């Protein structure tokens, strides 16, 4: 019999997903996403300009840049701001690069016009899975921002080619668990983050045995579990957008 | 007849005040405060330690530090993060120092124990008056955090000696206006921020005619207008705390 | 009977004012100003160029920027240079912004041409009131620099619309004192800096009860005391300029 | 018939592996590793001290930290040094974190004593796969350094529990290729880096479709191809160590 | 016949030397030194503490650290402050290291007690030779500070073993000139700075043909010329100290 | 009888010189130079562009910039990277400025075209004399890079007007020694670095008695010793280039 999870979930059960649109009205699109107690403000802002390296290299179309940050009160022990420490830590850099790649994989930059879509993900409360919640919410914020661009006639075609969502899976005391919370994540032997589109194509698969290793069979199990969770997240994203974009 | 304000307020009328407790559950105390469309996350976090300069200089008691930041999507044009620019801008420094002084004026540091109370104010939506909303909300967050310290037996006496709130006033097209929104603030000839305790004592009076000057009489008018607004804010703070602290 | 001040001044008496023109001959205008033992090098330099943000935003006219620094040997305990610590401290930022706003309030930027007037204030000896001495001396340095621009035919009209000076006042052991020295400033219950033009218009009023609060009546007393001191400083500035500009 | 690779390799063929021991004699162990034209200096240095966070948190045993850098002349267009730009770029951060996790996965920190094993990987010539060459060489440098610790009696037992190596695989024009060089890597549709131990356990699997996506079947194909390459690299590592450690 | 120098000096003639003691009264010792129009504030401050590396390495005695800076208004075109540019430029680093070595060469650190002697040299007006003026003045400031330490009983013996001064020499249009001003320095083919003690021992000889080269004979000529100027500077230092230290 | 040197060299004997061409094939020219155990990677890279200050000031021709760094494993105790400490240390700044000046002294920038020649010197193993080895090797790397420019028709004439090399000399226990290794350098009473061209013209002479002083006669002895070593190095450079450039 499997070990009970601390929050009584089944091994293959997602945490409750909550979504609140328009949390930051000055953004072009925004969402407050909750994966259980993990809550992330995801905002998409359109800047009518592209990075200078694109202009210099003659690359046409638009760009998407993502930034991620944990608000200082998002953790149980206050986390100093990056600017106080004077540098972005390595984990943050990894996460914002991952968010950026994940969104660009479903974005036809050529159809974005000469715009930069800024994706900002600020963690309001951290309980594991902040990067996967961020990607899942960032897609929704981006979709809302695109809708505003379409409505305003600034672009004529939706440049998003698919939806995208992410979830974590891990081996915890030998058992494969879906959507790890902080306690599970901290002690997991293996930890994987999987990013997948609504049509079931992978964008990123990152599996790591931090101080440990894992077998080929374990990897297969984890990926299969993630795919099931991601199908459910994609369905929930579609429902949300049906209500807010139509 | 006075000019109508863009949002139809009377010259001496505050914007609608909104308060949502516990917006950031991992903080010791937190509030989402709204002065009309200006919305600021105010969080108070207790760190069981004091700055090293206090230990080195043999100063006993606790400390309070405040940090202020505008989230990148709080403004209509996206505002780059401090860490991206690599430094805190001058305005931010001024504001976080003001928030810190304002809170310390009503805090008996000797009764705080060897704790640091971190005050974090992150602007979610900016429409003028972010520093005054931040101070008004930060007091409430601090009070909630103190309640948690008292409930947990970590301190035995409330170190807050009074409440504190802040409001802006200004001369706009020659007329004294209370609680300026962004458009009014941007074009005001004179701009003042007044910080006052619940008992009506001043903590700070800062009046500036940026590219302009003002008379002694105009200063008197502005201060009187601010005092009326601050009395109302103090009453609203008291109501909120009656519900949440009892 | 009032408490005697350590330097035997009356409560409403300024410290001896000393002024030495042309302390830094490579500047366009310069003054070494002394408020008693506080001595500040104030220099104004003209750069025939405006900041890039002005050009980008199509703003015409000139600009004025102020920088303030304490030389390492200006204090009894050596003060490390900003560059050694790698950042400007918050107090310095506040002061240089205050100096800049104070000077711009009496400067018609449109008449300055496409020039930037750099104001540099470096404290040679610190004994309280360095920011008020800096503003008072910076006006004189600016006036000398303007004279040089006029003499050289680079501008045709004096863009300074009035003189400007500043003084501190404070409550020390319950008594209102003018022009605080370091010992008085350190222990003052309330501390105010007032910036006023030669014609008696306010530019800035900043009153703060750092760890304390103050009443409306106390504020009135302090402002009245500051106005008297500022009238005297304006007269002394006029005398100095009569000798050096004519 | 498969497309010929530019360097005439078969799709599942590694580039020539070259290994030169003791390239940096002041390090405890060092190797110059070549994956074809990609050449990386890998050095392991022992510092008889652990990071302060370990001492503060009471964690016993040793630590391993990895740093990665591209020498400015390693690329065809000169790459500015990090210190010139003032910050480490995101890609470098990701790579040095990956190298660190990969080595720690086969290192029993408890058996390392109170030592920090510094792993430095400096790319002398870059032609794709610098991170995989770095991990593969870093293991060898670490093993040589451990040998020196054992020989000097500073530790009594080899803390390395297995060997570790890494290789890249990718889909290039629809075909799965092993050990991509720069040209292949730049244009690959999907790119994966796989880190595996000598016993065939995974340490990391990172698969990314940067501007693209990939199917479950494609992922399986890539992982299988990587495993074959990694088995060969593990054998070559063992031969090298047989000569140099015995 | 030699070319006339712009300021009518003979080739082997120093510029007028001016010395004003106690320019910065809060320092332990200070001097405003002038080499013609080059004027440098030199201050020596005693800090009753040594750098942490000395305590960690168990080095006894005191230390001397020198810092050099050009005030922004010291040059005809305003020179931005180091803190504005965010870094110290290479020339400044070289000069402050040179000043430090020069002073330490005549300082018996063992007799300084556990004190750090901070030497600060801030250029008020720059017209060539700022580093040589700085060294020459810094010695005097240090001597005055030592006198204060001796008078206060904080040390019992003068740790200065000799005086030290510096001068520049150069080849300008083929002619060897002493004590170059800015115009001469800028166009000199070869430029040397020589630091010598009162007893005629060298501390530093730095000769550089920036974009050019020089012969052995030219070097000999320059060194001989510098020695003559340095003998004169040493005499003038002795006179100054006879008046101020006795 | 002179003291034996630790490595049995005669006082006027250079360490074994080793030269390996093309150590970094992506550079335009590169050399691994060894002065005994001191080994430095010297690379020259051509960038078809000049610094922006040249374009702004209308200076024609090319430029040469040098950077110097010690690899972390080049010293017996690991040396942290500059980027980790966040700044370049003073010694590094001095050295890279010296390398740059030395190379520019034999480079006719007008004949370089609108190119920047980047000189990178990275110390692989440090045993004293890294800056002199760097200069000596950098000249060879530059010459190889120039040859590539000539061969590719990017310039039509060799802009190098002479060769350049450098060597250290010092007084160690009263004896003048050539080409100091680390142990000798660390304890030398006087230390000089001399940079000379192949035709025997000086480029730089830097002699310093760090915590000490030296006489005119000692300086003469050191310079004479350096000249002898430099003549030998120039001959060895010519031999190397005869083989590699022809």
Describe this structure in words.
The structure is a homohexamer of 246-residue chains. Chain A has helices at residues 52-57, 82-85, 90-104, 130-151, 182-187, 216-244, and strands spanning 17-21, 29-35, 38-47, 63-70, 116-125, 164-172, 175-178, 190-197, 202-208. By secondary structure, the first copy, chain A, is α+β, with helices and mostly antiparallel strands. Chain A has a single domain, classed as GHMP Kinase, N-terminal domain (Ribosomal Protein S5, domain 2), CATH 3.30.230. A five-stranded mixed β-sheet of chain A has the order 1-2-3-5-4. In chain A, strands 7-6-8-9 form a four-stranded antiparallel β-sheet, sandwiched between helices. The longest helix of chain A has 29 residues, at 216-244. The mean pLDDT of chain A is 94. Chains in contact: A-B, A-D, B-C, C-E, D-F, E-F. Chain A binds chain D through residues 87, 90-91, 93-94, 96-97, 101, 104-106, 109, 162, 197, 200-216, 219, 223, 227, and chain D through 87, 90-91, 93-94, 96-97, 101, 104-106, 109, 162, 197, 200-216, 219, 223, 227. β9 (202-208) of chain A pairs antiparallel with β9 (202-208) of chain D, so a sheet runs across the interface.
List the helices and strands and how they pair.
6 copies of one chain form a homohexamer.
Chain A: E1 17-21, E2 29-35, E3 38-47, H1 52-57, E4 63-70, H2 82-85, H3 90-104, E5 116-125, H4 130-151, E6 164-172, E7 175-178, H5 182-187, E8 190-197, E9 202-208, H6 216-244
Parallel strand pairs in A: 4-5
Antiparallel strand pairs in A: 1-2, 2-3, 3-5, 6-7, 6-8, 8-9
